[in-house]
Amino acid sequence: MNKIITISRECGTGGHIIGEKLAKKLGVDFYDREIIEQTAKKSGFTNDFVEEQGDRITNSILFNIANSLTYANQVFAGNGVSLADKVFFVQCDVIKELAAKGPCVFVGRCADYVLKDREDCINVFVHGKKEDKIKHYMETNQCSAKEAESAIKKRDKSRANFYRYYTDSEWGVVGNYDITLDSASIGIDKCVDILYNICVGK
Amino acid sequence: MNKIITISRECGTGGHIIGEKLAKKLGVDFYDREIIEQTAKKSGFTNDFVEEQGDRITNSILFNIANSLTYANQVFAGNGVSLADKVFFVQCDVIKELAAKGPCVFVGRCADYVLKDREDCINVFVHGKKEDKIKHYMETNQCSAKEAESAIKKRDKSRANFYRYYTDSEWGVVGNYDITLDSASIGIDKCVDILYNICVGK
User: Is the ipTM reported for this complex over the cut 0.90?
Assistant: First the structure.
């Protein structure tokens, strides 16, 4: 087995757990928070600042009117590069360096796009029906259905915007992935098994 | 195992073969051409006529301007129902009757939509990258790359239009399926194994 698995996921689908369980079953490294931590370390920013830069771009009202206008909302690092862009570029380097170390599982952070030139990637998208996602989010975060629905909507919109902004492609469109899975319909453990078998069988 | 599997597929992905192999492995019935034959028998039209009605709708130039205008291109059966619609309605009945007989695999014909009220369906979409689909089509149909590309484009557009017209939903959008597979990337036999394991494991 010599594979990099990237998992993109809608909020409330358990995509993070699938990635964690898959990495454990395969006996390989799992990267999610570590990408942020290493990006912070490498760029000299704090973890919070690195995370905020994504939110700054994707939650701005102007972003939803026209992507190019978001520059008006950003802080610039000089040479026309915004701090958010700078953070993203450092993050790309971190992802490439981690992937170069060997087989592993990435969750989020446009890793599928960042590693698109590697031929040993399996790109996965985990999705779900609205009601299933709300149920999962409520259970995981101990909140009301209304709070869950609002949080999911905001998070998924943010991820879609972030992906579109940096990749010029659409998040969650089948052509970008080798496999997509409805985790509630298939089941979390079955999803892990399917991905495990794809990895070890090729 | 008590499952109905519906497979929708882009042209040149081997989705038909996956369905055939899966049905054989599961020991259940496989329906593709039989839907047309039974629809013809039930409606009193010929097999060719049944097939043509789909093409008549989806390949009309007007269809691509505005779906509602396609009525101008259609032959009406009376009571404002076009012959194409009549054929589709009969086809829906045929699919439901076949599904009621027991576990089986359907390929195409909007079976995922027709059977949307059943809870024992696993809806699959098989897709692929343009170059892989052209290669597969050339091998299967002994034609040039140019002919393959043209045929694939026409067929996929036709399927997407047909699906949109009758289901008011989009063909190939992740939310409509339990699982989507890039057959060239995953491999035809591996796709069959994955679907088999989902069916027998649940």
Answer: no
